Amino acid sequence: MKRLLAVTSTLALATACGNDNPPAPKAECQLEAIDLSACQLSSLAGVQPEGIWNLNINLNDGSGAAAAMRLSGGGSNTQMLLGVPATERQSTPESFFLASEYQQGTGASAVTIRFAAAGCSSSGPGQMSGIFRRCANGATDMRGTFEAVRVARRADEAEASGVELVGEVRLADATVTNVAVAHGHAYVTAGAKGLFILDLSDPAQPRQVNKSEPSDDFFTDALVNGNTLYVGSRRSGVIVFDITNPASPVRLRSVPESVVEVNDLALDGDVLYAASPLPNSEVYIYDVATPAEPKQLWRYFVEGAERLAGEVPLHVAAMGGRLYVSNWSFGLTVSDVTTPSKPKLLGRFANASSSATAVGMVGDRPYAFDAGEDWGAYLSVLDVSAPATVSRTGEFRTRPEVSVRAVAFAGTKVYLAYGQDGLRIVDVSVPSAPQQVGYYNTWRETDPGHGVAFLEGLSKVHVPGDGYVYATDSSRGLLIFRETAE
């Protein structure tokens, strides 16, 4: 993903703040200051003036981002642009303009940051392209174009096919980040709200039985190893819980003993891998022969990946002495970890935005199922039998304005948490020809919180082998599915 910074660059701030007579906060980011003379403004007459839209912003310097705007829906009347409440809107048969702004900093150093999107043309009710600007104290510091598509269920699809929703539980005031299932319980990480434990005796009615709330942390991932639960966090690395009593986790320790962000966890035999994008961009490797007492074996910096270029480990998977790391713009890497304390890079696949990977055997060959996370991102089916020359044998995608969020593999199927396109189940028994065999459209425009960010909807998926598929949703919480024969 081309990252559009939510704050102004140092240079732009220095320019804005160093001006003895800075322009008014709106100035170059108001509609009258944007040249629309080459636009087809009459085509905007048919644009739907409501709903939630995903945006692909392309800046003139080649950077940009996928983002969102809310004109209505999302369980709120607040209009938003790039996650900031809108302060100005104009919508007529020949114009569309939306702006939002916020204050960065305080006192004499405060800067007014303003986002502005002006419509230029439209090819249909749910599509629009236009001019984008960002200003600091009224002076443009970013400019470019945008493409916007209203988010809605695909016209050729029903709510579901080959999948039924068994249970659903929304955790109050919490945005869930992942789920692990074991011992008849679901361990749901929920960011700053911590860890929720749900009894799954009746999957149709999951029942919350406990909660562990961090004092100053953000829980990202969960993984069960016997009677031990590992929780990834943004401040405490890997937190270790004893779940001998599954309903009452007991926090034992965290590793390493420093402020470290862990985004994802993977287990292969007695070795635990923890992807740590910050502060140093590395993969922590632990011996967990005694599960509750991880012993650090190595801090692995993937060879060739540049932290300052955003080439950081976001996701890890491991199988058969091989470690697979999603390194964002550096792509998917394959490393030899036969000796875990001496990892060695074997090869990589240069995916533009590798953010999630699952691995498994299809027939007698190992495959990695690598997903990007961006406008136009999709699933790549990669033959990793020869790591030095990883090759893409197949791919699966829905539509460019919706992104894959997470991947799981079981049997010969890949299970995708596909953002606003919900759960997608893809048969990869023929790796060169992935076929969708089931789906469930989970996203609803009116659910609370929607329209703030591009990455919304179904976010994680877990297939523990108990006959159910567990997934987390940015608004709906924990969802439990079951595949059906059709």
TrEMBL record:
Keywords: Lipoprotein. The keyword Lipoprotein applies. Pfam families: LVIVD. The keyword Lipoprotein applies. It comes from the Bacteria. Transmembrane segments: none annotated. Coiled coil: none annotated. Signal peptide: none annotated. This is Lipoprotein. It comes from Corallococcus macrosporus DSM 14697.
